[in-house]
Specification:
Blueprint (H helix, E strand, L loop, with lengths): L2 E3 L5 E6 L3 E6 L1 H4 L9 H8 L9 E6 L5 H13 L11 E5 L2 H4 L1 E2 L10 H16 L3 E5 L15 E2 L2 H17 L4 E2 L1 H6 L3 H6 L10 H12 L2 H8 L2 E5 L2
Helix pairs in contact: 2-9, 3-5, 5-6
InterPro entries: Ester_Hydrolysis_Enzymes (IPR051532), SGNH_hydro (IPR013830), SGNH_hydro_sf (IPR036514)
Protein name: GDSL-type esterase/lipase family protein
Organism: Laspinema olomoucense D3b
Length: about 240
């Protein structure tokens, strides 16, 4: 291992170690709709368990139905209690939440589950709290199949509301220099037929093929793969 002397007379050692990452959010993190691979987080966790991989540690902390307020409430406790390797806290947080906030309640023109102005405040607070803990990445929502609404007989999701909620999230990430993967735009560019083939019959959750594609979208996300490939830390050895 290479040891460098610093101007403060301390020495630092470069050590390669697995990253510890927590993924917090809703059913897109949980992986609902993928009975084969368990969702994109689980698929990525399995890739990192291969002998040839860097061996990063990935915790799936997705909860179905979570909105921003629920993720905010559990953020710091989940972070503090998901350390590994000598009780160190995680190196990064992946957030993915917002689609449930955008839903219309009871009818297509009902009120949003979370009022848009309230959501704007809550997402800003979530991003600030997460960024104060460690490095943050944000995985955006996928576009729903509007023709399959309502979901669970009471929730009406639509692209117009999804766009508003994802945009204020994307802009909040941009202001804080938090990398944001815009799946709404990425999947939208692939066309209606492609999207419908990659969503469950409920019109909301990705299916097995959808999560396979989502994993590839994550693996093709340069800023994230660059971060995970540089798992080298300078540690004080004085």
């Amino acid at each position: 291992m290479q040891v460098l002397s610093a101007s403060s007379n301390r020495s630092y050692r470069a050590t390669v170690h697995p990253l510890k990452i927590v993924a917090l959010g809703d059913s897109l993190v949980y992986g609902f709709g993928d009975p084969v691979g368990g969702g994109w987080v689980e698929r990525l966790r399995r890739e990192w368990m291969l002998p040839s991989s860097a061996g990063h540690v990935l915790y799936n902390l997705g909860v179905r139905g979570d909105r921003v307020i629920q993720v905010s409430q559990r953020l710091e406790n989940e972070f503090r209690y998901r350390g590994e390797l000598k009780n160190c806290v995680p190196d990064a947080i992946i957030l993915s939440v917002g689609v449930n906030d955008s839903a219309r309640l009871g009818r297509p023109n009902g009120r949003n589950f979370t009022d848009f102005n309230t959501f704007t405040t809550e997402i800003a607070q979530l991003l600030d709290c997460a960024q104060a803990l460690c490095r943050v990445f944000f995985v955006g929502m996928v576009p729903v199949n509007e023709t399959q609404m309502p979901f669970s007989d009471c929730l009406y999701f639509n692209h117009a509301d999804q766009y508003r909620y994802k945009e204020v999230t994307r802009q909040g990430c941009e202001q804080r220099q938090i990398p944001y993967l815009d799946l709404f735009e990425l999947w939208g560019d692939r066309g209606d037929a492609w999207r419908q083939a990659h969503l469950c019959d409920d019109g909301l959750h990705p299916n097995v093929a959808g999560y396979q594609s989502l994993l590839q979208d994550i693996l093709n996300w340069d800023v994230f793969t660059s971060f995970t490939s540089l798992s080298q830390a300078w540690r004080n050895t004085a």
